[in-house]
Amino acid sequence: MTNQTAHSPANSARDLDDRQIKDRIVADLDRARARTRGLTDVLDDADLVRQHSRLMSPLVWDLAHIGNQEELWLLRDVGGKDPILPETVDQLYDAFQHPRADRPALPLLDPVQSRCYVVDVRSKVLDLLDRTALRGRRLTEQGFVFGMIAQHEQQHAETMLATHQLRQGEAVLDASPPPAPDVATRPAEVLIPGGPFTMGTSAHPWALDNERPAHLVQVPSFRIDAYPVTNGAYQDFIADGGYDDRRWWHPAGWHHRQEVGLTAPLFWRRDGSDWFRRRFGRLEPVPANEPVMHVCWYEADAYARWAGQRLPTEREWEKAARHDPVSGRARLYPWGEQDPTPELANLGQRYLQPAPIGAYPQGISALGVHQLIGDVWEWTSSDFTPYPGFAAWPYKEYSEVFFGPDYKVLRGGSFAADRVACRGTFRNWDYPIRRQIFAGFRCARDAAPGEG
After folding, report:
1. Which of 54, 138, 273, 335 has the maximum number of C-beta atoms within 10 A of its C-beta?
2. pTM of whole model > 0.85?
3. What is the mean pLDDT of residues 86-112?
4. Could you give the CA distance from residue 183 to residue 333 in angstroms, rounded to a whole number?
5. Which segments of the chain belong to CATH 1.20.120?
C-alpha cells in the first residue's frame, strides 16, 4: 500500500499541537454556525416552521436538530453533562424515528426556543473544548468528534440551502456571480492510465467511517471528461429526444421518467426555444457553460448512454481526483494537500451556483482533470458499499444502515458544500431518483486497447 502522510484538517498532524487543533475546531464551528444563522435568520417564523416540500424538514427542525446532535455528542458523551432540555426532546430530533414528511406534526421547539437552545449548547461546547484533552481517547483524538459535529452542521446547512431552493416566494438569498472561465483550451476528456491506486484513507483524523480504511485497488485504463457535463450539452440531449427514447434509460429509470413525467432538470422551464431556471426565487436564463445540476442518477445515466459513454465508477472518480502518477501517492485534494481556497474550488455557498467550466485552473488534478471538488456533486455508477475492512464508528446509523443497492454514490462536493465536509475521500450517497440535491455528473468510457 502506498504510504500516506497523516493529515490533520489543515496540515500534517505532526505540525499541529492541541492548541492549534482547537483553534481550527473553533473556526470550523464558527463558520458552520454563521452559515446556519444566515439561512434561518433571513426568514420569518412562518417560513421557518412551514414545510416547503415533503422531501425536506421544516427549517426550524434542522436548526434544533443541529443543536441536539451537538449536545448529545459533545456535552453529554464527551463532557458527561445532564440534558439541557427534557430527554423527550431527543426523540423529536431523531432523524431515524421521524421521516421528513411527518416532522411538521411534531411538537417541535419554536424558532425562539430553537435559537436559544443552539446558542446555549454552543457556549457550553466552547467551554468544554477548552478543557478537553485531544489525545488518549479515540472519540476526541485530534478533535475527531468536534470535527464530526462541524461536518454535521455543514451537511445540514447544505440541506437547508436545498430547502431554500424548493421554497416558493421572493428571493431572500443573494451572492456575487462566480468567476469567469480562465482556461482558453479545454480538453474534452483525459486518459487515466491503468494500475494500482490507494483509495480511501486511514490517516485523516476527521475522516468518517465510510471513507476508511485506505486500501489498494486496481483500476484499468479509462477516459474521463475533463469537466462536468454542461447545461448546453445537456440541452442537446433534450433536443435530440433523449427523454423520449427508451434506449438510453435504465429500466427502472424509464419507469420513473414516465411515472413522474421527467422532461428536463428540476427547476427548468422552456419559453419557446429558450430555457430558463428558477434559482433561489429568481427566474433566469440557463447558462450554457455551467455544469448541469438538479438531475437524478437516472437522467445522468441516460445522458451518458446517449453520448456513447457511461458514468464513472467511484474508483475511477477517486483515482482521477487523487492519484499522483509521479509520486505514486494519493493526494488529499486534486491539487494536493492544501485546504480549499477561493482560487481552487467553488465551495461554501460563496456564489449560490456552480461556476462555468474552466473557472478553476489551479484546482486541476495531477492527471489533468478539472473542477472535481465543488460546483456540483457528481453521480457515479457505484452503489454505496463498505470498503474492505470497514468498521462502523462511532455509530452505525451514519453509514452502515445505508449500504446496498438502493443508494448511488456521489463525489466531489457542490458549491453548497463546505471544505470541512468535502475532500478527495469524502463519500455522499442518495436515492437514484433524487433531484433537489445539488448534483450533476461527468462521463467516462473504457480506454481503447493499448491506451494507458
Report:
1. 335
2. yes
3. 95
4. 20
5. 13-166
